Amino acid sequence: MTTMAGRRHSPVPAPGAGFWEKVDERLGLSGWAYPIPEHANSLPYMLGGLTLFGFLILIATGILLAQFYNPDPANAHESVVYIITQVPLGDFVRSVHFWAANLVVVTALLHLIRVFVTGSYKRPREVNWLVGLGLLAVTLGFVFTGTVLKWDQEGVEALAHNREMGELLGVWGVWFTGEFSRSVPILTRLYLGHVTLLPAVFSLLIIVHIYLVKQLGMSPRATEAAVSGPPTKEQGDSNFAVHLRKLTGYGLLLFSLLGILALAWPAPLGRAGVPGVEVTKPPWMFLPFYPLEDLFGIRGLLVSAVVLFVLLGAVPFVDRSPWLSPRRRRGVLVAGALLLLALVGLGVYAWMSRPVPHLMG
After folding, report:
1. What gap in Å lies between CA 190 and CA 70, rounded to an integer?
2. Where would a tag sit more exposed on the chain, N or C end, judged by fewer CB atoms within 10 A?
């Protein structure tokens, strides 16, 4: 007979512990707590995650706006006015969508700069650098098509640029012209591109991007002696669950900022556009190319954009040194800083200059 003194007391499970164990058994949530380096929890290393968080906001608000938007050229602008004036919270949702698109570009560019400065594009992460550039291009595609969809004067002029760019590309740009389909207006096809084609490409690229981050691990901190090397998968003193919690906190702050901006400065909308008139400038992220269009026309706009992305794509293959520290990569960083200053300078010049006609009519 076992005495009271000889009995073993089983620990009392915490309330709800059994439930979460069963959930974890089926969903494997504990697998998210894999090791990552502590520096991955700092804000500079969360800019990519914040950009993705912003895209989730864009998807949610975009789905709401799509319920009321009419992509037919005869009704597009009027449907946007209807969203602003008649749909409950329509102006607020549209403004959140507008500011989220702007802030996503900001966080994406800051993420690119952080990766460049810390040498995180080096071996074995060259492919992920290229995938990231693809995501940036898709992001700019979202902004451009979204600008057209307003169908105000800015949108009409953006569509005219879209058409002339397609004609310049010849057979490779026929999708952007009216020759591709006589039965569907270009505006309607750009809308479908905005809500189907671009999201499909974005989804594919972001899956590859996240997969490579998971497989290769977070790039080491760019200390004086740090060098590129083999993958650092599941190495570090912190874990990804902590990273997700902190990222969620920053994401909620971002959402709050978007709400404040949407209330304080609602998304602008001009009057219905008049074809053949050029009186507007492009959104700020395209302004650096505007002076080149002044000098060389549409061809200058296309060539300069291609050259920029080619230069960025070549970075991991030009900077072949193993060093991550900015002090050991001064030549590359100086070249990058000069390119950034040139883009900012062109953008400021474009912002201060008067709009001039570029299109052939």
Report:
1. 12
2. N
Residue pLDDT, tens place only, 102-151 = 999 999 999 999 999 999 999 999 999 999 999 999 999 999 999 999 99
* pLDDT band, very low/low/confident/very high, at 1 (cuts 50, 70, 90): very low
Tell me phi and psi for residue 207, to 5 degrees.
-65, -45
Query: What digits encode the pLDDT tens for the residues 146-159?
Result: 999 999 999 999 99
- Has residue 314 been placed in a domain? no
350 part of a folded domain: no
Taking the C-alpha atoms of residue 139 and residue 235, their distance in angstroms, rounded to an integer, is 31
CB atoms within 10 A of CB 349: 14
**The model scores a pTM over 0.85:** yes
User: At which residue do the structure tokens 């995938």 appear?
Assistant: 131
CA neighbours closer than 13 Å in the CB half-sphere of residue 348: 6
Q: Has residue 232 got a pLDDT over 80?
A: yes
Residue 24 lies in a domain: no
User: Is 331 inside any structural domain?
Assistant: no
Domain that holds residue 65: 36-279
Q: Which of 11-15, 31-35, 155-159, 307-311 has the lowest mean pLDDT?
A: 11-15
Look up residue 6 and give its two tokens: 């000889």
Number of domains making up the chain: 1
Say what percent of the chain tops pLDDT 90: 75
Residue 228: is its pLDDT beyond 80? Answer: yes
* Cα–Cα distance for residue pair 165/63, rounded to 1 Å: 29
